[in-house]
Amino acid sequence: MRIEKLTKRFGANVAVDTADFHIGKPAMVGIIGASGAGKSTLLRMINRLTESSEGAIRFNDRDVTHLTGRAKREWQSQCAMIFQQFNLVPRLDVVSNVLHGTLNKRSTMATLFNLYPTEDIHKAIEILDRLGIAEHAPKRAEALSGGQQQRVAIARALMQDPQIILADEPIASLDPMNAQIVMDALRRIHEEDGRMVIANLHTLDTARNYCDRVIGMRNGKIVFDGRPDQLTTGAARDIYGAGADFSEGATSTDINALETPQQARIRDAEALV
Ligand SMILES: Nc1ncnc2c1ncn2[C@@H]1O[C@H](COP(=O)(O)OP(=O)(O)OP(=O)(O)O)[C@@H](O)[C@H]1O
């Protein structure tokens, strides 16, 4: 994938400013940065949910920046998106939610009457099984925990057999244990299927633990692009625009790494002593 000088303006605000990077082979890439840095806008431009103002998106040497109609829909199913809030139909059962991943390929009549080919139903259950949630297949989506719902959303994405999975803050609404289950699932999908995963992540430790490459954004610009081991505290401080008081704990999903107010007071007191 080649992203060339990709820019998005919302009026005078430049949400993404000449983003430029190349992903040579399927990798697991994390995008980090403070709130408002432009991470979601970048992913949404890649998926064509948001139109870019300038620049280009190329995949396998094909320019997908201005595709329309059917070609655009095909591109959107090649790079399936997963969202922080799962975007499932809450009152619908899990299997039907997963089958919604095939909507692009089905006729309006079939969709209206909820008619799915048996092989699609089997495929949906297989994918749910792979993600460890097949037993929940007949339940309503709203009856599942957040981590389970996010796995249903991943299953829905996999129904499209995408080459790329774009995950926009996939674990931001989850507790640390469920966050780990969902990130493990994304990593496995990358390793076992060879799919590219690009995930916007709020937390540094997740990017370090799961990604082969980390892109750091600040005020719409890419300010870091490297391996997780190059992501030092200093580099992180530049990305988050934080001062000397920058605490990695504040960008961590690890319960133990989160400092309680009492711990902070003890640390301050110790510093004084
Ligand atoms: N539809 C929109 N209309 C106007 N401005 C927008 C729109 N979407 C995003 N922005 C602005 O673009 C900038 C980047 O937002 P974006 O949501 O991409 O950042 P982010 O890094 O994903 O933040 P967060 O982590 O909070 O989701 C922000 O200043 C935001 O206010």
TrEMBL record:
Keywords: ATP-binding, Cell membrane, Membrane, Nucleotide-binding, Translocase, Transport. PROSITE patterns: ABC_TRANSPORTER_1 (PS00211), ABC_TRANSPORTER_2 (PS50893). Gene3D superfamilies: P-loop containing nucleotide triphosphate hydrolases. The keyword Endoplasmic reticulum does not apply. SMART domains: AAA. GO terms for molecular function: ABC-type phosphonate transporter activity; ATP binding; ATP hydrolysis activity. It holds the Pfam family ABC_tran. Residues 1-244 form the ABC transporter domain. It comes from the Bacteria. GO terms for cellular component: membrane. The keyword Thylakoid does not apply. This is Phosphonate transport system ATP-binding protein. It comes from Allosediminivita pacifica. The lineage of its organism: Bacteria, Pseudomonadati, Pseudomonadota, Alphaproteobacteria, Rhodobacterales.
